[in-house]
Write a structure and sequence with these properties.
Elements lengths: L6 H34 L5 E5 L13 E8 L15 H17 L4 E8 L10 H9 L3 E12 L2 E11 L3 E7 L6 H6 L5 E7 L5 E8 L5 H16 L5 E6 L19 H7 L3 E2 L23 E6 L2 E9 L8 E8 L2
Parallel strand pairs: 2-3, 8-9
Antiparallel strand pairs: 1-4, 2-13, 3-5, 4-5, 6-7, 7-8, 9-11, 10-11, 12-13
Helix pairs in contact: 2-3, 5-6
């Protein structure tokens, strides 16, 4: 008597095997690009680009530096939905942002929420597009979130655009909101770039976007910023959306222990900024259409002074841009 199962009993087994193979292939196609993107993400967190032959002359007077910081909100405009609006409209808005920044005559621009390859903005490298249109020969791209699936990608973070050569750039790790979130998609980080100014002078610029969800996250980020400032004798400028406002300002937040991120930066004695007290409506940076908070900042080192400072009105983003001109001590 044969032990071989009847053919009719083998058919369901073969069908199940084929089904498992098909499901496995589909899962690999969907999840595979995600796994690869997350494995490769650490090596792509910071990239420096320079085109010295395209370097634009700057009309800044010797000893002065013009810097602008702008959270461009992925090019979505003043609304709060990244998926709303067409890709064409977002590309047109990025071109308008570039023209706006060119009009500021800034030597250095810090961008937050800038896309490098995201589905919701039409897979445009917005930092590259703005740099090319506005005349910045050098740029640093730093990714906060970096992952993709088969038919979608989300790669965005901070960027520094410069008319002066960028001779070094390093990622600045900030404490994550949650370890599992960092592992799955990434987290907010910063990037510090060293710029070569005329007359052999150097300055470091830290582009940073602190967590919006809890002040305790921002407090930890502020302590990391202080550590960066202390790590080198080269002066440090901090610029970006810090999502924090000092005690006494509208909508100031503190932790359960009474800590505040901006207060920690102030108490370090390493920075100065505007406004220091009693902000006026023209000082507010968020939102662009109904400004009630000061959360976008340019912090300059103690050996520099403000020559000019201004919050720039506009509705190309839900944030307003901040512009400052500073002079370094001899």
């Amino acid at each position: 008597m044969s032990d071989t199962p009847p053919a009719e009993n083998q058919r369901p087994l073969r069908t199940r095997r084929r089904l498992f193979v098909v499901v496995g292939c589909i899962a690999l196609l969907v999840v595979g690009p995600y796994i690869v993107s997350r494995i490769r993400s650490p090596g792509r967190r910071v990239r420096v680009y320079g085109e010295s032959e395209r370097a634009a002359a700057t009309d800044t007077l010797p000893g002065l530096l013009r810097i602008v910081t702008y959270n461009i909100a992925h090019g979505r405009g003043a609304i709060d939905d990244n998926w709303q609006g067409t890709n064409t409209a977002k590309r047109n808005r990025i071109e308008q942002i570039a023209q706006f920044l060119a009009g500021t005559d800034a030597d250095v621009v810090v961008l937050n929420e800038v896309d490098f390859d995201s589905t919701w903005s039409g897979h445009q490298n917005q930092a590259a597009a703005i740099a090319a249109e506005a005349g910045f020969a050098y740029r640093v791209e730093q990714r906060n979130l970096d992952f993709r699936f088969l038919y979608g990608s989300w790669k965005f973070g901070n960027a520094i655009l410069s008319k002066y050569p960028i001779i070094d750039a390093q990622v600045v790790d900030l404490p994550p909101h949650a370890d599992w979130e960092d592992w799955l998609v990434g987290r907010k980080r910063g990037v510090v770039a060293t710029l070569q100014l005329p007359d052999q002078q150097r300055v470091r610029v830290l582009a940073v976007h602190l967590e919006h969800r809890r002040e305790v996250n921002r407090v930890r980020g502020a302590k990391a910023i202080v550590d960066v400032a202390k790590s080198s004798e080269v002066p440090l400028i901090v610029a970006g959306d810090l999502n924090s406002t000092p005690p006494g300002f509208p909508d100031a937040r503190t932790t359960a222990d009474g800590e505040n991120a901006m207060a920690i930066l102030q108490e370090s004695g390493l920075f100065q900024w505007r406004p220091r007290a009693a902000p006026t409506p023209s000082d507010m940076t968020y939102s662009s259409t109904n400004p009630t908070q000061v959360i976008d900042w340019i912090l300059i080192p103690s050996n520099a002074t403000f020559v000019a400072y201004e919050v720039l009105a506009g509705d190309l983003s839900d944030h307003r841009a901040v512009s400052a001109t500073l002079r370094f001590a001899e």
